[in-house]
Amino acid sequence: MLKKREYKNSIFNIFENGKIVFGYTETGFKKEYLSEIYKCEILDLKQIHSDIVFFSSDIRKDSEGDGIILDQHGKLIIIRTADCTPLFFFSNDFTNAGIIHIGWRGLFEGIENQIFEKINVPVKDINFYIGPSIESNCYEVGVDLYDKFKDKKYRDRIFTKKSNDKYFMDVNLGITLSLLEKGIKKEQMSYSNICTFCDKNLPSYRRDRTKERIFNFMLLKPKMSDSFGE
Ligand SMILES: [Zn+2]
After folding, report:
1. What is the pLDDT of residues 169-209, one digit of tens each?
2. Which of 156, 131, 145 is nearest to 217 (CA)?
3. Residue 144 has pLDDT above 90, yes or no
4. Between the CA atoms of 8, 221, 98 and 61, what dihedral angle is there, to the nearest 10 degrees?
5. Interstrand relation of 67-70 and 53-55 (parallel, antiparallel or unpaired)
6. What is the Å distance from ligand 1's center to 204 Cα?
């Protein structure tokens, strides 16, 4: 679905059509490259593993939260990840779109549900793309997390027991099952199927304890009337 592009010897991956661009960067790609390429203002958040989702027009310099819904054209939003999941979404007509940051805390808080509360689009018209993130086989967690998720219907499908007090956790399956519970169909979901821990071209916090992050970005292109004036 996404295509590789190069800029200043760094790689980024994009989906693009006449209305939208979204994608993710690989290790070494600098945030300012995105403003150079797309020539627009960048909006991002101080991410805090919450269930707080902003409309892009409400973002201020110190805004704290973990999801952005684009309600503007010509602004580029960024969500940073290194093992956590970037959940991209967009309506069939590309008028509603955004990115949510989901780690185990976000999944526990149900941040993905904010999409349905904040946008007024029929469930059948929303598409999702799960970007590079840590896979279950590489994501060992303690029994405390398994216990914490006891009220989630999907719990026993996303945790695999490894030993008495260790489990593997599949955050992406948790997101998928949560969205299916909301009425999303499997055909509306797509996946990068790339594990940040396994793919050495992507930063992984678990693997490297790195400060480096993937920049997951999205831009609704300016409308024709915006570019040519009224
Ligand atoms: Zn892996």
Report:
1. 999 999 999 999 999 999 999 999 999 999 999 999 999 99
2. 131
3. yes
4. 70
5. parallel
6. 10
The DSSP line for the chain is: --EEEEETTEEEEEEE-SSEEEEEE-TT--HHHHHHHH-SEEEE-B--SSS-EEEGGG--TT-B-SEEEE-SSSEEEEEEESSSEEEEEEETTSSSEEEEEE-HHHHHHTTTHHHHHH----GGGEEEEE-SB--GGG-EEEHHHHHHTTT-TTHHHHEEEEETTEEEE-HHHHHHHHHHHTT--GGGEEE---BTTT-TTS--HHHH--S--EEEEEEEPPPHHHHH--
Q: Do 128 and 121 form a contact (C-beta atoms < 8 A)?
A: no
Structural domains of the chain sorted by starting position, each given as residue range(s) with its CATH number in brackets:
3-133+195-225 (3.60.140.10)
pTM as predicted: 0.95
Q: How far is the CA of 30 from the centre of ligand 1 (A)?
A: 24
Q: How far is the CA of 170 from the centre of ligand 1 (A)?
A: 11
- Calculate how far, in angstroms, residue 47's C-alpha sits from the geometric centre of ligand 1: 24
Centre of ligand 1 from the C-alpha of residue 48, in Å = 24
Q: What is the pLDDT of residues 41-94, one digit of tens each?
A: 999 999 999 999 999 999 999 999 999 999 999 999 999 999 999 999 999 999
